[in-house]
Automatic annotation (TrEMBL):
Ranges for domain Thiamine pyrophosphate enzyme TPP-binding: 375-523
Native species: Oceanimonas doudoroffii
Superkingdom in the source lineage: Bacteria
GO-annotated molecular function: acetolactate synthase activity; flavin adenine dinucleotide binding; magnesium ion binding; thiamine pyrophosphate binding
Positions of the Thiamine pyrophosphate enzyme central domain: 186-321
GO terms under biological process: isoleucine biosynthetic process; L-valine biosynthetic process
Protein name (Swiss-Prot/TrEMBL): Acetolactate synthase
């Protein structure tokens, strides 16, 4: 067999059943091997969407997502998706074709140094120089992508390696052993928990990535510590629990931010003190000691000093942390009171559609297995605030990179990962246009992805900041020249409708969910609506703005 066939064989050995990609000159041998190679390949309409499709697939399934592209522009188009996967710790393997080894360094047609370009946005990158190494490199790449703190890995395969003949050999199974638990650190963490009067459990995306939701929920139940999550941690904890205070940070709940600010101990699990979480760092939870649990020890002290950092598998360490219900009744009552005092309000005057209420109604119309992908902006924050998630695998949001254009390809990837579950996109009119060509991919794959497009004819989140912090100078954020979105969907054979008034919302959601095809629900909303609350730049998280005044 040749190198390209060897790649397909090794991918199958890794359990790969779905690839997202786009062909071109330097990867033609691999596409030839895929022709009857027995692995599904979805032709996307842009390599960025192929990478983000793989991200969506990985996020929804917990498996490694796989994407591929040709050299040069195909490879550079993948880069945004890899950076997205890097910042959100998503396991992805990307395979790029490269010009033949002999041509590397000659400015050959469609030659770019994708390995060099990828180094800062992948966990690891390989250039395969010898066909003999292909199998081992691919096996290792999958292990690197999914082990420890997951992330993207790039394998660049020159064309001559793809066509070279090879005698396949069994790949050496590559597994990494977990670290031994640091018993002294554990004992210190237990003592800190026992002493704390106002502890908060601060949960990030790392818990879901480690499949440690059950252990985390058991710990939260046992200890009775009030809890908050990051954007990526949404779904990890029981959303209906009386001690769950919601998301913290810039657009977090008031209850979450106030409780965190008053806490004397932050137990941080699989989170990284992102600046969207902390706001003004030196004013963030100033009286709190920190216990930090993470699979990536580089996070300890990176942004906020930890009193104890434990680098361990979360599934192992969480059950060993505390056996008892902490004696913090007064604090629990205080947190419950904060939660009761700062409930969301959905009473909104007028006939126009109020996006937070609409998203709450959408959430109520879906069951707990539905996967919601979103784009970036106001609608993304409204999804995080007003939709209910019981698993982090159901909330696909580009948290770290904030990649506009993420939503549609991610929703496609999610639907392929879990065809039995509803895949719903919530997008904004700006973001939707960033990967709108993927309507063609939807059509090709005939996937019943449901799309809710919240159209405020603005780059809403930027408009909001211009209104609040740039004296209302709306520089390049007005999109009154948007296309007719329903007609555009129709051009791809996708039915849809536009709604503009509150009373149309629930029947339209029902029609969308009843459709057995893809569907576009185009929702006109006011351009003046803002996301509240908001921690303005440069202040502490307890200084949240709740309105323009
Ligand atoms: C690729 C990319 N370019 C620019 C931005 C900056 N940005 C963040 S939110 C936003 C506006 C998004 O507008 P839209 O998709 O309509 O959503 P809305 O905020 O109106 O809900 C922009 C331009 C980004 N996050 N990603």
């Amino acid at each position: 067999m040749n190198g390209a066939q060897y790649i397909v064989q090794t991918l199958k050995q890794q359990g790969v059943t779905q690839i997202f990609g786009y062909p071109g000159g330097a990867i033609m041998p691999l596409y030839d091997a895929l022709y009857d190679g027995g692995v599904e390949h979805l032709l996307c309409r842009h390599e960025q969407a192929a990478a983000l499709g793989a991200v969506g697939y990985a996020r929804a399934s917990g498996q490694v997502g796989v994407c591929m592209a040709t050299s040069g522009p195909g490879a550079t188009n993948l880069i945004t998706g890899l950076a997205d996967a890097m910042l959100d710790s998503i396991p992805v393997v990307a395979i790029t074709g490269q010009v033949p080894m002999a041509a590397i360094g000659t400015d050959a047609f469609q030659e770019v140094d994708v390995l060099g370009m990828s180094l800062s946005c992948t966990k690891h990158s390989y250039l395969v120089e010898n066909v003999e190494n292909l199998g081992d490199i691919i096996a290792e790449a999958f292990e690197v992508a999914r082990s420890g703190r997951p992330g993207p890995v790039l394998i660049d395969v020159p064309k001559n390696v793809q066509v070279a003949l090879v005698e396949p050999r069994a790949t050496v199974p590559c597994t990494t052993a977990p670290n031994a638990l640091d018993e002294a650190a554990l004992a210190k963490a237990r003592a800190m928990l026992a002493e704390a009067r106002q502890p908060i459990l601060y949960v990030g995306g790392g818990v879901g990535m480690a499949n440690a939701e059950a252990e985390l929920r058991a710990f939260a139940e046992r200890s009775g510590i009030p809890a908050v999550t990051t954007l990526k941690g949404i779904g990890t904890l029981n959303p209906d629990h009386e001690l769950f205070l919601g998301m913290l940070g810039m657009h977090g709940t008031k209850a979450a931010n106030l409780a965190v600010q008053q806490s004397d101990l932050l137990m941080v699990v699989g989170a990284r003190f992102d600046d969207r979480v902390t706001g003004k760092l030196d004013a963030f939870a100033v009286n709190a000691k920190v216990i930090h649990l993470d699979k990536d020890a580089a996070e300890f002290g990176k942004v906020r000093q930890a009193h104890v950092g434990i680098d361990a598998e979360l599934q192992q360490v969480l059950p060993r942390l505390t056996g008892e219900h902490l004696a913090i009744d007064a604090w629990r009552d205080q947190c419950k009171a904060l939660k009761a005092e700062h409930q969301w309000r959905y009473d909104h005057p007028g006939e126009a559609i109020y996006a937070p209420l609409m998203l709450k109604q959408l959430s109520e119309a879906l069951d707990d297995t539905a996967m919601i992908s979103c784009d970036v902006g106001q609608h993304q924050m409204w999804v995080a605030q007003h939709m209910r998630f019981t698993s982090p695998r159901n909330h696909l949001s580009s948290a770290g990179l904030g990649t506009m254009g993420f939503g549609l390809p991610a929703a496609i990837g999610a639907k392929l990962a879990r065809p039995e579950h509803e895949s719903v996109l919530v997008s904004g009119d700006g973001s939707f246009m960033m990967n709108v060509q993927e309507l063609g991919t939807l059509k090709r794959a005939q996937l019943p992805v449901k799309m809710v497009l919240l159209d405020n004819q603005r780059l809403g989140m930027v408009r909001q900041w211009q209104e609040l912090f740039f004296d209302g100078r709306f520089s390049e954020t007005i999109l009154t020249d948007n296309p007719d979105f329903v007609a555009m969907a129709a051009a791809f054979g996708i039915p849809g409708e536009t709604i503009t008034r509150k009373e149309q919302v629930q029947p339209a959601i029902a029609r969308m969910l009843q459709a057995d095809t893809a569907y576009l629900l185009h929702v006109r909303i006011s351009e003046e609506e803002n996301v509240w609350p908001l921690v303005p730049p440069g202040v502490a998280n307890d200084q949240m703005m709740e309105s323009k005044a």
